[in-house]
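Why do we bother with a discrete structure alphabet at all? Because it lets us treat a fold like text: something you can write down, compare, and reason about line by line. To make this less abstract, here is a complete entry for beta-N-acetylhexosaminidase. Read it the way you would read a sentence in a foreign language you are learning: slowly, and without expecting to understand everything at once.
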Amino acid sequence: MMKTSAAILLLLSMIGVSACSPQGPQQVSQPELPAPQVSPAALTQSELQRFADNLKISYRVLTNVSDDQCARDRAGGRCFQAEISLTSPFEFSAGDWRIYFSQMRPVQSLNSSEFIINHIQGDLHSISPSAGFSGFKAGETKVLPIRADFWQLSEVDAMPNYYLVAPNLQPVVIASTQLQQDPETGLEVRPYMVAFNDEERQFKRSPEDNLPWAKANVIYERNQDTPDNAELAADSLLPTPLHQELLPEQAPVDLKKGISPVFIGTQRAPVAAALARLARLGVREEAAGVALELVSDPSLASEGYRLDIAAGAIKISAAGAAGFSYGLSSLASLLDPDSLQISAMRIRDEPHYGFRGLHLDLARNFHSKQLLLKLIDAMAAYKLNRLHLHLADDEGWRLEIDGLPELTDIGSKRCHDLAEDNCLLPQLGSGPDPDSAVNGFLTKADYVELLQYAAARQIQVIPSMDMPGHSRAAIKAMEARYRRLLAKGDSKGATEYRLLDPEDKTQYSSVQYYNDNTLNVCLESTFHFVDKVIDEVTKLHQSAGVPLQLYHIGADETAGAWLESPACEALLAADSSIGDKQHLGAYFIERVSTMLASKGITPAGWSDGMGHVRVDRMPAKVQSNSWDLLSHQGHRVAHRQANLGWQLVLSTPEVLYFDFPYEADPKEHGYYWGARQNNSRHLFNFMTDNLPANAEQWTDIENRPYSADDRAGVQVSEPLRPENRIAGIQGQIWSETLRSDELVEYMAFPRLLMLAERAWHKPDWQVPYQYQGAVYNADSGFFSAELKLAQAQDWYRIANLLGHKELKKLDLAGIGYRIPTVGARISEGRLYTNLIFPGLGIEYRLGEGIWQTYQGSIEVGAGPVQVRAVGADGKRRGRSLQVQ
């Protein structure tokens, strides 16, 4: 239930307000108010451009501490205060203009006699001069004090690309609100955002918030136990194999001369991609290279393999293409990219989970086919085998569908068109330009290429178009289709795929503040549309020679757009088996799931929507992605749905959402509704086979201990049954704040490597699951001192493996992973530093001096001192921190 910007949903649930009920929070968009005409002369395009080029906008969060002036009927009475400042360097008296901007959490109130702020739809707002607007004097700053729902705890929340609109003129982006790029780190810079400096009022969201700001000293204490020991990386590979035996009596194998593959009972084509990765690391196919035998062995598990490395030859045994590819991936992981040597050893391996997935949201902000190809290569390198593509949501439809051109002609782009005849409304700081990089879609040929590319690397693509909620792009596209065909006199064609009931008077709001984003599930045209989309996607899979096996409905966060729909009244009267209006959402999921099953396709959905269905009306084979917070008893939903016999895939937000920040720092990128700190060690520590046991090692979002009750009968809960097990895990990349391919790489890597470790390898330090049920908390003691020590020692190996060896391979692949922030402290005038991944370089500088290489404890006096890390290839730099 907590996905993407569903912070609102979680927060409402915490304060006893339901955002999942059909009524939902009543945040209906307000009509735009007319702006006054201060100057009788109409603006020209050049005057509007000049104003946009020179108007300085700044955004400052004042406090996240709620007060008695917060709206009592909104957000549970919680709000934050901020200021939007407008400064014009020259006199400007015109009043016939508006500024449009994205504000993630809607404005509750504005204390201004000169301006009005309106909420348009979603996060889109407008600022317009009111009757009291007196114009700008040269150099004058006008301050707009606002209160908005909940809180704003990150500088990244302030969306870019405010733009100006005036009658009969082209919209113009305000230059001061455009993103810039740090030349050394490549990271986004927001010149309009005033940096946070008050930990109590800006960084914390309540007086009870115990989460520390991840400053250099905080990171130093956290990293202090991890040794810098390159020996730990020497013979390690990632993901960790089931069994590994070193043969120290034999000489290491030197692969500088390459490899000479021999295929016995198998073929080269299925492993060509894995061989190509070895070549990129410097191990090419050469006739005089080390003999590499690939031998078919049907006795092995379908994804298992044996790898025998000796001085004279290397042998990989497997039952099929996946096993051979994974054996070659292990060879690549063992390889030192500098020496190209591997120790002699034997490996016997197979995965812990069959489903090892990565989810990427293309809908909120589009990302290129080139990025997808790069991600697929990286997934294959680390033995991930499912790519879940989120292709449609409120903010965009990203796949060409034959016969429905409006889905991409209109639904794939956002621009300034309030009627939405040509595009969707701007959202997420996209600005008014339809040619912006955040717009776009995959053509049918693109999608077929991706399917084939993934299949050649043993990866299954799972398409998803979210329905019935999160469907605004589809609704608006089909309404444009309706208007086009109706104008031609084709009323039958106009209504063929219509997704709303024009007589529906329901007022609702989604958790992302849309009042028009939900399909009407009572219309046959809705199901005709869904059937059409599924059939066209199926055809693309057939064209690629890759059958469509799993289709993700979404089914989450449905606000309910049918309470006052005549079409629904008629349907319920005609079919008493549906029940009442509260069952209409379940009816949609059940009917679409049955539709999919009849086509030989397994239906999948997010756990909140799947939790509403009547199980006896669902197909026998179903997948559910559990995305309930563990700190809010999320294990109960996972266990309940796994016990139905469904394929349960963990998508746990506070550890598997890669759009969450790496560290609790206002400058770190990402949403944070479920967790404000999700670094690689946190993910590595995840006990996937015993979800409630994580309460012994983790805290909630405010760094407070929590208790997980896994006993039977607790709120209709029951422990996981012995005959059921978790099917797998999936990392999620939601893209509301990720406007570039580079940011996706930054947020995905190196966390993707930890995802692969937890998906493939079952560590021996996990707390064994107790099928009789138990209560877990910081004092329950099931996670013993011995298990904690084993976990820490395993982490030391993995941390050194990344820092000394594996990150170099990401550099060679051209992947812009996040370079970690440095831990540091000054003691008796000397600087001490450390890193989450030992082995990377560190630089420091005194004051505003030049950056210097850090080579051990050095004299720095009292400071000020800044520190930053250097990428494994010595080229890129990470974000700097000041040492306190």
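What the structure line is telling us, in plain words: The radius of gyration is 28 Å. The chain has four domains: 31-203, 243-349, 355-760, 823-883.
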